[in-house]
Amino acid sequence: MPPPRSRRPPPPSSPDNRRVRLHPHGIVLAPRTKPGDAPPPSAPSSSSSSKRAEQAVAADEEVLPLYAGAMHYWRHSPDEWGAGLDAMKKLGFHLVDVYVPWGVHETPDGKFDFGERFGRLDVVRFLKMADERGLKAVLRPGPHINAELSYFGLPERVVWMRACQARTPRDNPVMLPIIPVAFPVPSYASEAFHEESSKWLIACAKLFAPLRWPEGPIVLIQIDNEGALYFRDGPYDQDYHPDSIALYRSFLKDKYRNVKEMRAAYQQPQANFATLQPPHRFDAHVADDLPRHMDWMEFHEHLLARAMEKIAATFVAAGFDGIPTTHNFPLGESATALNAGRMADTIDLVGLDYYHRATPTEHQTIMRRTSELASRAEGTRVPAYGAEVGAGFPPFFEPIDELDSLYTLMAALAYGLRGYNLYMAVERDRWVGAPIDPHGVRRPFADKFEALNGALERTRFHTLRRNTPVRLVIPRALRRLARATHAFGPATPALFNVLGAGYRESCLEDDLGLGEVVTLAGESYLRSFERALIARGVPFAYAGGEVLEVSTTNAKWVICVTVGGVKQDLFSRLRAVQRAGVKVTVGPSVPDRDGSMRLLGELHDARGLEVEPLADVTQADRLVARRIEELKLPTHPVNPDETFITVHDDASGTPKVAFVMNPAPHAVTARVGLPTVTALDDALTGARITRTGGAFEVAMPARTVRMFAVEI
Prior knowledge:
Blueprint: E1 20-23, E2 26-29, H1 49-53, E3 62-64, E4 67-70, H2 78-90, E5 95-99, H3 102-105, H4 123-132, E6 136-140, H5 156-159, E7 175-176, E8 183-184, H6 191-208, E9 218-222, H7 242-255, H8 259-266, H9 291-317, E10 325-329, E11 349-354, H10 360-380, E12 385-390, H11 402-414, E13 419-423, H12 446-458, E14 470-474, H13 476-484, H14 493-498, H15 503-506, H16 518-535, E15 540-544, H17 548-551, E16 557-562, H18 570-579, E17 583-588, E18 610-611, H19 619-631, E19 638-639, E20 644-649, E21 655-662, E22 668-672, E23 679-682, E24 688-690, E25 696-700, E26 704-711
Parallel strand pairs: 4-5, 4-13, 5-6, 6-9, 9-10, 10-11, 11-12, 12-13, 14-15, 14-16, 16-17, 17-18
Antiparallel strand pairs: 1-2, 2-3, 7-8, 19-22, 20-21, 21-26, 22-25, 23-24, 23-26
Helix pairs in contact: 6-9, 7-9, 9-13, 10-11
């Protein structure tokens, strides 16, 4: 079980004084008041963001879809700000995404220049210009922002302070070999780093508090950025900073009831909490050696969640509250220590970054990560948000062309995004390929985004829902074990995930005496069901075991991989899901180890659940066929096999929008079976398709997604 959380100040979205609240369709804005009017009444208190979001929208409140575009004010002359903002507004964006770089604003004397010396640093003026144009703002003050800046936007003096630096097992700084300059990354545990960053965060809180909605345009605030340990997230890369070691020992003391229990788990009769050292490399030879490695993986998640708490609390203490918080998980997030469940008390809206290419392999990646995001968002009643959806690329990356950018965005929308931030909307230095040039002039590619945003508005896409009655659940223990057994040392596991490689390609293949390689067996089980569901056109989504209850909302059939070891309460939680009327299948086995891979001495209690070992590789297809009949699962067949379809319904369950996707490098004609549909109208071009011989024939150019308004 995770250690108990300590009490802390309420996060910036405190219900007692919120000015903005999240809603499944976007964000709800309290009405603006005129000078002399009484302030809007405080909304009633509640215990979670999920309950807050369920409140009805008052007649004088506005639900704003999260369609945003990024612009970096400090990289432009102030006389170009207006043109860039106007161009974004014309493309149909409602919000401007605003990074605020600590290292750029800090002066040599340790103070901050917010436009007093250099006009391009007058971020308040920039935000007021956005407000004048009706644009709301997503504020992203870090302390880490990346933004392709040297030192990721941190002051150079801070990254070279030894007390602030993350440490390797040999007590060396953890270096990030990044263009344009390598640098030592900060420690998320370092009290010295938090003390330095708090000066910046307090200055930002005081500067921006008067610009919160409704007095100003700020409606979301991001807490830090891409918190995957600065991309040095290998399982034994970091953090061996003294403050991290102290936090690790405190974490273990909270987790284990006493030192005797810890010694038994670690098979170290002389160990104690005061001197225990974390593992420096993967040195397990048998399964009983795994608990200390699994705890180290879990500790990384605890470390990051605690750091986000500290940053959020700093804003609150300085007077910036009432605005929902957000955080963006980078590519490969499922192979990192980022855990949305652990961050849920601090972060209201966890979004994903998207920098993919239009290929069959990356299509599968978009489908898996977006559907997991969407299932979690549906259960917590917040919009599934693409916090950065790439349009263009840094010049030191492999090029991402216009087809890649549009395909990635539309495929992510197809699999459940309900809002997105186009990064970058306006081009700047260290970036190539945005739809608006640095001077605010539209490029031809901008027409595509204007057409798409217009289609999203006309179809009210933000109010629709993709019905995914089947959920494939991945317990957190399996992901931790995959991190711990990563086979390629300093090459981050996230890199393999981004490239589409699975556990078979990236994990050690030692069975550790268990009779099977747990990671490979678990992945094979999930992929067998994934292939069977796709083949029969059954819509499904992935779900994380750490947020099982919310991520299985509205499901009819839950398939949970159980192999190696799982948390002791997982099976009871699955039975609770089943009691709510959901069919639950587990397999390929019922383990006898807990989530830390400690031997329990007996199997987990799987009574009442369907245990499916999939001894025959065709059994997954037979089981899916049976469930289609038993549970009346919807099917949306499409061929050829290289094409894909998703359907999005309104609140009554009536289909309103369909996406057809072809990630292949050649054109195809897709045959789509939608029996209740009479016509498909291309939402971007207006082209109309009627049924031919019982199906719709859809011309699909290479690397293309088409969005259709559905006629019943």
